[in-house]
Amino acid sequence: MERGKAGATIDIRQQKRPDLVAEEIKRLITERDLKPGDKLPREVELQQMFSVSKSTIREALKSLEVQGLIKVTTGPGGGGTIIEVPLDRTLQLLQNYLFFKDVSIDDIYTVRKLLEPELAAGAVAHLTEADFTALDDSIACCDTPSAHQDGDIVKRRQEDVNFHDILAAANPNPFLRFSCELINEMIRQLIEFRNDTPAAELERFGQANVKIHKAITKAARERDADKVRELMVVHMTEAPRYVKRMKGKLRGRLILDAEIRKRVKAQPET
Length: 270
Description:
GO terms for molecular function: DNA binding; DNA-binding transcription factor activity. This is Transcriptional regulator, GntR family. The protein is 62% helix and 6% strand. It is mainly alpha-helical. The protein folds into two domains: 9-82, Winged helix-like DNA-binding domain superfamily/Winged helix DNA-binding domain (Arc Repressor Mutant, subunit A), CATH 1.10.10; 87-261, Four Helix Bundle (Hemerythrin (Met), subunit A) (Up-down Bundle). The strands form three sheets. The chain has a two-stranded antiparallel ribbon. A two-stranded antiparallel sheet has the order 3-4. A hairpin with a 5-residue loop joins β3 (70-73) and β4 (79-82). The longest helix has 23 residues, at 199-221.
């Protein structure tokens, strides 16, 4: 920091050139209204546009790629392509932030109880026959007799969450949809159970989910949004009780990229 006239404080720190160029490329994306799938200008064009070196452009593009905004390919026809920021990447950034916070399972379900009923109710009018088929398939996967094998249990817990993702995808509110999908992904990635969790307890939780999911689907087929909202409140109230009885806990460490890409976990999830 440096003092200027009249004692004013001036911040003499400056962003690195690649960071400044990355910000300018973001502005370019906005001004040209580029969408996922659209290509950025070629590297040589970006060099001329911003009067910087090839290495600076490449560092800027790499920064945007790390942020999840673009994908960079090499070779003829390569360069930067706009992509939709992956939910997994957003989760990783959020979990990095929450790593230093005292967040509990109760905290997550308190928010979920507020959002999920409105998400489900708002989805009712937009659910298609394909959506109902997907909901029924998800329920059927969880309703099969337990083979008492870890893989089967993990798959059923995954489907419990997939049920909610199907409802989320049908809701037209993009911010509400994103918020609930992010919470669902946190539940998949961060909640784990102890190895000594009784199979009978896992089975009770699974059957409770099947029962309420069937009721929610039935009400949704009848286009009864109020009933769906009411049932989802019940569901979101009961779920954390089961999780705590099964000694569920949040993983207290940062998620690695390799773990994010690994969709099937070694521990049962809710």
